[in-house]
Design brief:
alpha+beta; Chemotaxis protein chec; six-stranded antiparallel sheet; globular
């Protein structure tokens, strides 16, 4: 039997947490995620105005895919620019804290109250109100999309 509740699936980031940014714009990473991020992480702009926090190995995988995208394609160039121009690599400190740079806080409209969600291979950091709004606006569609998302 696979035990998910206690975080026993290596590398799988799950759950929702509501930490607060401190006065120095530091995020205390939820304890459950620290092991996956202890070798380093990359923080960058995510989609829907959230931030992505990727374990360093996952970032390398994503970068390999991105760098192989055709540079002749404007969408690929735009994605590459936006994704990488906001990226910062960091090592969490001994208390599991990472500093969120101003450029990323502005992008995601982060103040004090944030939500950190495990999204499988990455974390997403949302402004709490933005997450609540997103969830409210998309929860009904969630129950109708399993056939489109999950293979049979």
């Amino acid at each position: 039997m696979v035990e998910i509740a206690n975080g026993l699936i290596p590398g799988l980031l799950l759950g929702t947490y509501t930490p607060r940014l401190d006065d120095k714009a530091r995020l205390i990473l939820p304890t459950k995620f620290r092991g996956a991020l202890e070798r380093g992480l990359v923080m960058t702009r995510g989609q829907e105005r959230c931030l992505y926090i990727l374990p360093i190995d996952e970032f390398k995988n994503m970068y390999t895919q991105i760098k192989n995208a055709p540079l002749g394609d404007k969408l690929s160039r735009d994605y590459l620019r936006i994704f990488l121009s906001g990226a910062v690599d960091e090592m969490p400190d001994k208390q599991g804290r990472v500093t969120i740079p101003q450029i990323l806080r502005s992008y995601a409209n982060l103040d004090r109250d944030v939500v950190v969600i495990g999204a499988g291979t990455r974390l997403e950091v949302w402004d709490k109100q933005a997450w609540d709004d997103y969830l409210q606006n998309n929860i009904d569609a969630y129950s109708h999309t399993s056939e489109e998302v999950l293979p049979r």
